[in-house]
Specification:
With 142 residues, this protein is α+β, with helices and mostly antiparallel strands. It is built from 3 helices and 8 strands; from the N terminus they run E-E-E-E-H-E-E-E-E-H-H. A hairpin with a 2-residue loop joins strand 2 and strand 3. The protein is globular and about 40 Å long.
Length: 142
């Protein structure tokens, strides 16, 4: 098995004090966590293009990609397997304002569901937000 660093583009979508995230589960750690939507950057694709493609695949949604709020490197284990990601994080807005009125959104290419979670729940430790450092980055960006 070859280990690789995975480049990601993640979209920070806000609705008031809430962030659009999907809920994931690491059964090995017994941990429920949350992460913004987005995914891997394909060869020849910019990080912004990757975000536009991923939101189309995941929610069938058109987005406007705003400024990059940061880049985070994340070395971790998931399901007892090592991982290494470099995540480009961008402010994102939906073109169709109707998405902001939906409390939950089924992710089309995954069994997960996206939902709005108040950023305060990540800041006070009630919920875990990945990648590491994103909670602090969001606080500094305000």
């Amino acid at each position: 098995m070859a280990f690789r660093i995975r480049p990601l583009a993640l979209g920070i979508v806000r609705r008031g004090d809430a962030l659009l995230v999907f809920e994931g589960r690491d059964d090995f750690k017994g941990e429920t966590y949350y992460r913004p939507l987005g995914g891997g950057i394909e060869f020849g694709e910019s990080s912004k293009e990757a975000l536009e493609r991923e939101f189309g695949e995941e929610l069938d949604a058109a987005i406007t990609v705003g400024h990059r709020i940061g880049v985070l490197e994340n070395v971790f284990t998931w399901q007892n397997r090592p991982g290494h990601e470099i995540a480009f994080l961008y402010e994102v807005e939906f073109v169709d304002a109707g998405f902001y009125r939906r409390d939950e959104m089924k992710i089309l290419d995954d069994p997960a569901t996206a939902r709005w979670v108040d950023v305060a729940e990540f800041r006070d430790g009630r919920k875990i937000l990945y990648p590491y450092g994103l909670t602090e980055l969001l606080s500094a960006d305000q």
